[in-house]
Amino acid sequence: MMKFGDYLRARREDKGWTQPEAAAKADIEQSYLSKLETGKSFPSQDVFERLAAAYGFDAETLAQSVDADSLKALREIGQVRAAVISLQSRSVRLARSWLAAGVASVFLGGASLGLFSLAEDDEYTVYHYTSPGVIAPGEDMNVYAILDRTLRSDLGEDRPDEAAARALQVEMMERADPQVRVTRDMHANGYLERVEGGQRFFRPVDSELVITPSPLRWFLAPAIMFLLGALGCFFVSFRWK
Predict the structure, then answer these.
(1) How many CA atoms lie within 13 A of 137 on its CB side?
(2) What is the pTM of this model?
(3) CB 3.0-4.6 Å disulfide test: which of 34, 60, 144, 204 passes with 83?
């Protein structure tokens, strides 16, 4: 912001006029123009209109360019007073708009934060079961247990029982068709499932805790965004004043 005299001089210099030339165009004395440019005097309503016509500026442009002290000194000029009131009214409306936007952002941020505070993660346990293969009708439930057995033999010929066990182990390895089930249902001793060709026995092997985050946790990001936006709106609103 500049003083009124500096504004006049800048406008005159922009047009490339000397003081005598500018004074002649505004139909005022050069000495009076000098006092106006140095801030020793301020124009009357009539002189202001002559200067505005000669220099090609309007009251609103002037009010946006000069400082508050100069506007106070020019308050008796109707055009300047009206321009100042118009600018102040516009500034108040803009400040109120920013203030309203800030209040709305606070409400939205508070609502988002409230939803975030209601977030509860879904926690549950899943159980892993495994079945080595299909058990034919009439077979023992532990028929596939032979696969977990480690067979040993002497350096010589296998003992008859070891040979039979080895043959059964080879047979069951050929029949093996492992499957895994993961479910929330707990069967401490395992469970049977009927399938084509017989049934399967699924025995428990492991369990794990599964935590599924609540979708409401996503509201934390917009809550922070709205609250920071509200601070920005309030800052702009108060600075605009």
Answers:
(1) 4
(2) 0.55
(3) 60
